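Q: Got a minute? One more chain.
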Amino acid sequence: MRVGAAPYGEAMSTKTRKPSVTYRCTECGWTTAKWVGRCGECQAWGTVQEMGGSQEHGRTRAASSVATPARPISQVDSSVARFTPTQVPELDRVLGGGLVPGAVILLAGEPGVGKSTLLLDAAAKVAAGAAGEAMRTAGPNASTGEGAERASGSRATSSGASPRTVLYVTGEESAAQVKLRAERINALSDTLYLAAESDLSAALAQVEALSPDLLVVDSVQTLASSEIEGSAGGVSQVREVAASLIHAAKTRNMTTLLVGHVTKEGSIAGPRLLEHLVDVVCQFEGDKHSRIRLLRAVKNRFGPTDEVGCFDLEENGIRSVSDPSGLFVSRTPVPVAGTCLSVTVEGRRPLLAEVQALLDKSSTAQPRRATAGLDGSRVAMLLAVLQRRAGVALASMDCYVSTVGGVRLTEPATDLAVCMALASAAQDRPLPQRLVCFGEIGLAGEVRPVPEINRRIQEVARLGFTHAVVPASPSGPGKIPPGFSVREVTTVNQAMELLFPPRAG
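A: Always. Here it is, folded:
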């Protein structure tokens, strides 16, 4: 080493080093040292982008002052976050009571399921209800003279504009097309404004001009910003549109309803960040060949996520169904082998549903297993339990198991009904009339207790049923209605001995 030369480590530290570059997935935040086409965490394609050199400290510095200082939580006024009913009972049930000012709600569903019809009907009812309240406040002379001045004055006292205006922004259809649908479903109101815009800046300008109390955007994938590269519906565009609309909703205390598209797998199109940013995520489900539609809350910051709303999509609009129990039961004059009724609890609502099973001798070496409205892997497990634990020969039979009315049953409490329907089809013996079965079945053939046993019994008794086969529980079935018979079972064999006694002779 030369005299006076710097040590090796110090010499290297004085050199200019090339800043390290990292790549981050815009969907889940996964990082990698080199670019890849597919994220190694969420398996999304084309979402890994260069993030630049790593920094020891963040770039954002603290602001010199804040507009709204922090306050004790006990001094925060929560009255501004009250629920406002939409006058659509089933929608209010799922949302937890209605619309909350400043909330952003995302409604997703397959094409043609009725998303636009539902939101247009809700927007018209909110606008018509607000207009009616304003007319009642103004008095009988609201149309002319002093009453009109009082009405306009009372509406202008809040935020400098009408607090009950509803703006419907459509990016998929023209204004004339939406008007035709509104006339068909009787969703016309003087305080419901319609704008056909596909540019985000134009939609925000409409919001600035009207200052609506409720904003409906149909849909978030059709709006695009000229400041962001990419076509409408892309990851960057959806992120920018959602961020801008959420900022406008929070700063103006404006409730916002967003329509979202879904992919062919059934998930919401666009970045996963969209579901994290919004306050409520609702899924609108239904079979295109059936009029019944179900609304579920996947995420809800203001209410429960276990509620379900039921709607009937008619020719003249969409109607809330407050008692849907009879919609998922077939109407046959005589008992048919292979059918069994069950009670599933969707949220806090017990629903009566029917399971149908059909068995046929297979003509191939590999018997077919087909399901509709039920989990296929769950049905395969129940078939194995029936054959191994109850001795029902099903190995060489084609099995078809389905529900009635397009309802999808995911609760394990329907296991017993599926097994009894399969056993009934295997023996070609119909189950007794006015009978329901529910209970979860394990791999050992045991029938496990399920929640809300008494509530299910009360519901089927109200509908006129007289018998129920339920799992045995330590607390018992609870209070039994007069004239109603409840039989508790602990195994599948016990249920089959009860429902299929040996034939005489």
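A: Residues 115-138 form the longest helix (24 residues).
Q: Perfect, thanks.
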